[in-house]
Amino acid sequence: MREKILLAGASGALGLEVLKILHQQGKDVRALVHSADGSEKVSKFTQDIWRADASEGNEIIKDITKDVSIVISTLGKSVSLFTDRGKSFMENDFYANSNILDDAVKNGVKRFLYVSIKGAEKALEYEVAKSHKMFEDALEASGLDYTIIRPVGFFSGLNDLAIMAKRKVIPIVGEGKARTNSIHQKDLAKVVVGNLYEGPAIKEVGGPLVHTRREMADMIAEKIGGKVVPVPEKIAEWGMFLPEMVDDSLSSKLKYFKFVTTNDMIGEKNGEITFKEYLDNLDLEKDLP
Fold it and tell me: What are φ and ψ of residue 236, in 5° steps?
């Protein structure tokens, strides 16, 4: 029987890049997506598409892993301040992935790759990190062979600052001295597929270059315009630049945004695409609302 791979979150920024590589390699892929738009995106690369919200329970995705030997999950709630699917991080990151894991165990899946976040084990007071770490623990206890990939952050995850730059302000928390080597989703997808059959239990992944948050904000300003505005840490918690958004989901995102932008987030260097190259290729009308 031909090997089949389940890719959860297949229509997301990372998931779609993973799907493209697997398609190029001639892999047989089953894609889990959430929406009609997601189905359309992945239909170019696979016809085996399940459209469902995995957070709604095991019955919704019963036997989604039947005849599957490897699961890759890039599934989770966006941390963008400008997008929201309505459900919580606990529902989208923990419950949805747990339901897939339960099905994988039942159907004898051999290996499970999960894309988490760097710092998940160190920031449990934040819902974003806690929900990821809870699933990491569930995966470790499942008995399956697994690799947890913890990226320091995607370039596309920094689009929020680019969106704000279009509105003439680029806030940074504090002095922006914290460093990171965020990675392009195309380069991260190569890391994911590179660990398809074997890999370490945990792999912390970054891009090719390390920058301070201030340096990245300055690059955004140079590309798009806008003024870089340092925001005191206490004020950053209030979300003063987004006063129209005050729900619990945004509050969770703002708190985690403050954490990651005031702490060094550096992973093993991978890939070739730099942040400057990413910005140079942004379509300001198409890619940024």
Answer: -60, -30
